Amino acid sequence: MSKIEKRTKNIIFMINFIWGLIKWSFRFGIVIIIIRIFFSDSPVYQNYLKNIFEPIFQMAFNKFATLEDHKSNENQQKQQQKEELEEQQNEENQGNSNQKNKKNVIRKDKNNQNSNQQNIAKNCENLSNAKYNQSWKDLQQSHNYLAKIAVNAQTACKSNSFRENLTINYTGDDETYYSELYGKLVKFCSPKMVNIFKTFEIIQKNKKLNQEEFAEMVVTFIQSIPYTLILDKSAKDAINQGGFAADYIKEKKPYVENIKFGLQSPIEFLYNKKGDCDTRTVLAYTILKRFGYDVAILNCKTHSMLGLNIPAHGTSLNMRGKKYYFWETTAFGWQLGQMTDQFKHEKNWAVVLASKND
Fold first, then answer.
1. Residue 164 neighbours by CB under 8 Å, 6+ apart
2. Nearest Cα to 262, choosing from 305, 308, 297, 302?
3. pLDDT at residue 117, rounded to an integer
4. What is the mean pLDDT of residues 90-95?
């Protein structure tokens, strides 16, 4: 037998061997799947097969869920881009119409644009989309979570521009002022957060979370993002003014200065992950409201916390027969109903925005 014949014979043997291995592996897999479906409670499976095959099944299920999530996120992103393009075209068409009818007014408006608005438009051209994986655990350390966050740069820029151009008249009533401010930010951002809502919905389904667990998952997601102080003035002015902000800045902790209203919109926060108390509560409120919770934003003179009306224990604020339990969002580990003695003794807490009343 020649060398060529021997080599050919060996190749044929290997092909037949591999093909036979594939066929028997497939048959074996079918048998295991049938056992898993119909006889998973049997002693044989529980005692001998479960520890071997359950991790394999779980890995396969997670992989399939990941592929489904990726496909769903792609579709949601395409839809969001389409909606944003249509919105942009409508704005351009509206702008052209206004230009024809109100040339003098538009010319005056352009001349009155401040440098801050011009910088926003200029910076938008240089922004890139934000994509990151945020991993965290629940408060009991029993669940590991992973959220794949994607925020379109132009959407973030529009949110920034909306907030910077927003005008809220202060009449001496803090509750009315913040209710209008928060409400407008939520109303503007919520329709543009379809992908974010879908991300949390997928986690809920995969982890089979109940009402309390889902709320905790959302809040701990926000708690897991490091705290950044948002200033409505320069750092120099904040230091001169004294108080918490001055001490915070002197300790060289992270901050962002000259942000109108001293907070960021939910989309801005998700984009750059920089937020303090009310930036966080507004985001938590936006998400939980979307999922039907009776949620509120609770403010005092120096702080903002989330309020949740579900069966719980701890410190709460009563409004119209409802108990809104306080939930701290600025640091990880705070449970529903927990708060420091400093804020527990604060007498000026008020519900400034409630999902079931707005």
1. 116, 117, 120, 260
2. 302
3. 45
4. 49
Q: Which two tokens stand for residue 107?
A: 């010319």
Rounded Cα–Cα distance for residues 180 and 135 (Å): 33
The Cα–Cα gap between 195 and 334 comes to 27
pLDDT of 92: 47
CA angle 352, 181, 165 (to 5 degrees): 175
Crossing angle, helix 194-207 and helix 277-290, to 10 degrees? Answer: 70
Check residue 227 and report its DSSP letter.
P
pLDDT tens string 226-251: 999 999 999 999 999 999 999 999 99
| Contact (CB, 8 A) for 346 and 300 | yes
Between helices 50-101 and 194-207, what is the axis angle to 10°? 160
* Cβ neighbours, 10 Å, residue 329: 28
Q: Provide the pairing of β-strand 295-299 with 255-256.
A: unpaired
- The residues near 258 (Cβ < 8 Å, ≥ 6 apart) are 231, 232, 233, 234
The tens digit of pLDDT for each residue in 185-241 reads 999 999 999 999 999 999 999 999 999 999 999 999 999 999 999 999 999 999 999
Which residues lie across from 354 on neighbouring strands?
296
318, β-bridge pairs: 323
The tokens describing 204, both together, are 């809920």
Angstrom distance (rounded) from CA 153 to CA 345: 42
Q: Is 283 exposed, middle or buried (0-12, 13-18, 19+ CB in 10 A)?
A: buried
* Number of other residues whose CB lies within 10 A of the CB of residue 154: 16
Closest CA to 224 of 327, 328, 132, 137: 137
Query: Which one has a higher pLDDT value, 93 or 105?
Result: 93
In this predicted structure, the answer to whether residue 83 has a pLDDT above a threshold of 60 is: no
Q: What angle do CA 9, 11, 16 make, to 5 degrees?
A: 95
Query: Residue written as tokens 């930036």?
Result: 279
Which residue type occupies 151?
V
Instruction: Give CA–CA dist 54/159, Å, rounded.
Output: 46
